[in-house]
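We modelled the chain as a single entity of 452 amino acids. Its sequence is:
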Amino acid sequence: MEEKKTQPGMTDMTTGSPIKLILFFSLPLLVGNIFQQLYNMVDSVVVGNYVGKTALAAVGTGFPMIFMLSSLFMGLGLGATIMVAQYYGAGDLEHVRGTVDTVYTSLIVGAIPLTVLGLLIAGPLLRMMNVPEDTYDMALTYILIIFGGIIGNLGYNVNAGILQGLGDSRTPLLFLAIACGINIVLDLVFVITFGLGVAGVAIATIIAQASSWLFGIFYINRKYPVIHISLRRFRFDKSLFFQVIRLGVPAGIQQALFSVGVMVMQSLVNSYGSDFIAGFNGANKLDTFGFMPIQSFATAATTYVGQNIGAGRLDRVRTGTRATLILSCGVSTAAGIFLFPMSATLMRMFSSEPAVIAAGVAYLHRLLPFYYLLAIMFTLNAVMRGAGEMLIPMVANLISLWLARIPAAYLMDRLFGRDNMFFCYAIGWTLGLILTSWAYFRGRWRQKAVVR
């Protein structure tokens, strides 16, 4: 076994103050998530202001479908993060390299059938989602173009997962900054100068994602020769692959079924027409800013726990969990307090029409007060995932979605009107938190480590 070497950018999270490690690891992730959201939001802002509310509805409608079909491969990125973190924590660089090679081989081979599948089922899925006729053609155009270049998005997520496992949260931020800059420039050129509309923002997105992915490979190979990536060298370790699958597939299935749930929710929203759809989709972009601290701290916790589980430091896992809960609940609550009174003002970025703004405000005001529930649930799930327990977080999240949030949305809509359907989020988070807390305090997740 090779000696573990910490290179510039890597973070050894098995020593030092847990709260400082998690905070400083998550700051680049938070900035990166802001770039990611700006990346997605620019498409909505440009089409909403320069093409129209129908185009805004089309771009928002397509996102859950794209996320659903790419979820399994995003699960590979999470599986890579956990395995790399645990092997790195144990000082086993040979298995770190083997994991990277195996994940990349799986990505290159699997991206082709995913692309074909997306192109074939895009139209039927949009019909199932109840997409209005005035939105359908634009949504289909957007989705088909995005799926044509989906490998760039998948490649970026795999690169980020590998680096985060090594304790490097800064380098993925660089990749995102490049993608965001390219996307903004190309959005404006393709939509305003060339008048390509929804097709223009889709083309800009896939060019930006591919550029970020390829630059990421070049940068990683120069900065981290210990994990050299090659698109021509296919090295595949069957035992490591099955470990990645064990860790990544439950998360991928959860994300895929979560996306199906979002599409079911979107179908209910779609039944109220383009104004309500546009308001919901615009507010969804703003809501993501409030969610970002939760996501960033959870990702940091997964890496922190993975490295300390690999090093056999369960005492540090407990202190890291407490530190993440303090950070996540505090910052996400502050974000909600800021966004609540600013909801109407911020919605005007997407549209000046009163009906669109009112729909977005209704969504935000019924969601933001309950962020603390999501923060606790996400933290505990992230800790269990870092240890290698993937099944419990998947089951808890899917039960909270399918047995609570979606039924509650339709029930609240029927009994109290369309605006109040959005209380379904708090109902779902409450059930999810109960299940996750029970599994966490039961403690069996401590026995799921890859490294023993």
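As a brief sanity check on the tokenised model: The two ends are 14 Å apart (CA to CA). The mean pLDDT is 85.
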